[in-house]
Structures are given as C-alpha cells and as structure tokens.
Amino acid sequence: YAICEELLGQGVTPPIKLAGDAAWNKFGADLTVLHPELVLQVLTCGRSSTRCPKERPDCGMLHTEGGIACTNEEELSSYPVLLAKIPGQNNFVAVVNRGQYIWKHLLDTRRIWSSYRMMILELPWLEEQTHHLYYLRVMEVLLNDFKLVHVDASTCHGRWQIRSTEVGMPRVVQATFVRKDLAVAQACTTQLHWDSGVWDCPGLPRTPPEPLSLVGAPVLGEPHSGVFQVYASPIDALDDVMVPQRSVSLEFLKRFRLCHTCAAGDGDFVRIGGNRDGGYLICGQAARDLTLAFSIGIRGMDPFGAALSEEFGPRVEGFDCTGVPYSCPATLTKCRFNFNPLCLGKPFGGKPASQFLSLAEILDRFAKPSDEMLLKIDCEGCEWNVLPEIPSEVLKRFRMIVMEAHWLETQQKHPTMLKAMDLILENFHLVHSHACNRFDVWSVNGTDYKMPRVVELTFVRKDLAVPTACENSKYRTGLDKPICGLRELDAKSFRLPAADSESR
Questions:
Q1: Looking at CB atoms within 10 Å, which of 91, 158, 161, 330 has the fewest?
Q2: Among 135, 388, 372, 335, which Cα is nearest to 242's?
C-alpha cells in the first residue's frame, strides 16, 4: 500500500490500526521493518494468525479479538471472512482489507472517520454494477472528510469497463485517503501510479495498468444481454442496497406475494428447529403423513431435520460435502437422521464429481415411489443454480419445500431466479415468508418496491393449500423469530407488486 510517511506516528501509541490478518500480511509486516519505532494494533473477529516478521521478531504488535471489534452480523456469519470494527481515537491511521464487506463497514463507521489521519483501503469488485449506487454513496460520504491521494491496481483481478465506451478501471484497487486538513491540491489525473518494483500477482505477466486485462478473458462490465443499467439516483436508506428499475426484477418480486395458506388455515403453522437460524415454519397437517425428508446444506448442524424427524416421524437424509458430519442429538429419542457427505448440483471447489448428485439421482438412491416427502434446501445461494435444472415432475413428488433464498438483490441473476421460482410455483403455492434479519433490504430504484436480501420460504403443494387474501408478507408472532441479535425485519420490510392473479 502507498502511505504518506510524514503522517505516521506523531506520538500516538499505537498509531496504526490494521483491520484483519489480510491487512497485516499485505502491509503491517513490512511496515514494522521499515519503521521499527511504530506500534501496530491488529483487530480481528477471531483468533489472529499474525506474527512478527522474522526480520523483527520483537515488533510492537497488539491484538484485539472479538468484543467491540465485531458486529453481531459479522460474528454470526457463516462465511470465513473478517469483518472488524475499528474503534476510533484521534490521529490513528487505519488500514482495512476486508473483502466485499468493506463497503458496508465504511458506512457503519462513518461517524469515526474524522479520528483518522489517513485511511488505506482495498476496494473490491468495482465492476458489480448492481451495487454502484451503494458504492457511490460510500465514496461521497468518504470524500466529505478525506482527499483521495493515491490509487493502485490489484493486478491479479483484471479490469472492467462500461460497454460501448472507453471508460474503465481495475476491478480491485488500493486507495489511500488523507484527511482534508492534511492534504494539498494538485492537478487532477486519472493515471494510476505504477511502481515497477511492486507486483502482487506472480502468476500473471508483468504489464502496466493499461490495458490491465485478464489474460484470456474478456473485460467485465454491463452484461451483453443488457439486463440492467445504472441510474445516478441517491440512496435514501443507507442500510439498503438499491438496484435499477427493470421489468424482470419487478416480475421476480411478484412471485413472493402470499396469496395462499395451509389447507387447515393459518393456525396450522408450526415452527420446527429451534428459535434461531435453522428453524422454519411448515404446515402441520401436510407434515403428518411424511415418511422421508431431504435436508440439503446443513454445514455441520441441522436442528430442523432432527426436530422434524422427532416430531413428525420421517427419516431425514442430510447432505453436505463441505461440513462435518451431523447426527441426532441424544435428547431426541425418536429422531432418525442419516448424514451423507454429498452435495446437490455440479462440482465446485476442486471436489471430485463423485461427491455431487442431482435431485433426481438423490431420489433414485434414497426414496421409494410411495414416500411422502419434504425438501429443505439452504445452500448459501446454490439454490438458484440447482433449482432451474430440476424437472417439474421431480419437484412435485414433494409435499412441501422449505428454502432459504439468498442474495435476492443480485439483479444480473434475476432471470435465473425468476425461472426457478416459476418452476416451483407450477406445482406449489408460497404460503410463508420471513426475512433473515442478519442482512439488509434491497429495493428497485425509482419505485417503492423492496424486500429483504435473504428470506426463509415455505412452499406447499397446490393440493395441500387454500387461497387467502393476498399480502406482501405476514409476520406470525410467536412462530417467526429473529435469526440473530440484530433488529428484526417484519412484514413491513416487504413491499411487492401485485401478483398477476390479483388483476384477473
């Protein structure tokens, strides 16, 4: 990273705060050698692996783990990413490298920015046009207190450009911001600084930042299908992610209107799987005849599958090739749960193809034609790749589908998501939706329409549901529970276009 050396130190201890092991590995270790008088503090959510470099084994390095360094959302995240809060004091220098979550972090901590003399940030995935309005808001707030004095390209990640123009830049940059009272004006330039002695991606040939294209890959930018286009409108709610208005997104939102309920009425809903993440609502009457359930994506725990087997009697087959095995808790004496180290869909992560099955293959291997079945799928986004490939005649063998639907704001995937929803709705009705309060709300720019980024959904086969007055969502007090310790998102976080059936 590039720094203004005259802004380091100045009698403050520790003057340098590093958010995360990545910031230490890329910056802190070298800095302790170049400036042995400095004391650095590394902030992490969990146990840190950082150590003093061998050139200076007695470096002044402090660790802060957990506590005020992390938000509830970040501590509970199922992803191995660092999301550290930086507590502020005067004249500190902050170095933050936290992946995609840096954008939200910067808004969350904007009130303490004035405490820092200099901020050195790695800003990733600038080509994600769906998020440009959010990024723009972050940059506007940041530049209210700081001046941008240096930008360098992360050479490993290539570049993106706006289609039909010559405007472009790297996908990931390292940016140095200096507080306004410590910076001086100069002639504006779009030229990236280039140090021929620095190269952060040995696997690629050494080339300067222009044109900085990925070897053998096209430049990134607006999809060739023209799915979306950015409008330069302000963000009203800083916690929201906004996407531009397009008919496919509005059509997608219609699919989440609730126009049906359990055949025995709203009073038939029961919660299975505890009061936090892993608990879902199902229709009790539809569950009484279950003989088999498939639980896809359990990540070492499945309170829903175990409780379903205990309370309603089906054998549960759990699937996950990424986590540790799971079995029935000793307290559940009637539970029947089998763990299978297999994943649904196509191979990923270098895992052998033998660990992956289609849903049809799972049914052939584990189910009998007479089985009355439930499907639960919570695979952190894989549902949108898997569901469109499942034949309708396979899906309709299930009485209910319980799903956690992820990353609904990802507008470039809305055509695929819409196809998946339509496939399910051929034979099922959506009877329940509940927001995952660990994440925010997204809205369609220029409209009042919005919904949470991640939702829990319960679908019931059409012969097991009855129509009811349509509504955006319905928070069922006593049954719906917050996923984590953040503020709950109730039915008001859903505002959806009317379903086509409502206009008939």
A1: 330
A2: 135
Question: How far apart are alpha carbons 167 and 259 in whole angstroms?
Answer: 46
Strand partners, 63: 42
* Strand, helix or coil for residue 486: coil
Across 152-162, average pLDDT: 70
For the chain, list the domains and their CATH numbers: 5-222 (3.40.50), 247-503 (3.40.50)
DSSP 8-state class, residue 26:
I
pTM over 0.85: no
Residue 118 C-beta-side C-alpha neighbours within 13 Å: 22
The Cα 418–Cα 253 span in angstroms is 9
Report pLDDT digits (tens) over 233-246: 222 333 344 454 47
Is residue 378 within 8 A of residue 430, CB to CB? The reply is no
- Note whether 88 and 108 are within 8 A (CB): no
DSSP-derived letter for residue 43 is E
Q: How many Å apart are CA 229 and CA 447, to the nearest integer?
A: 15
Under 8 Å CB-to-CB from 319, ≥6 apart: which residues? 294, 295, 296, 297, 298, 340, 342, 343, 344, 362
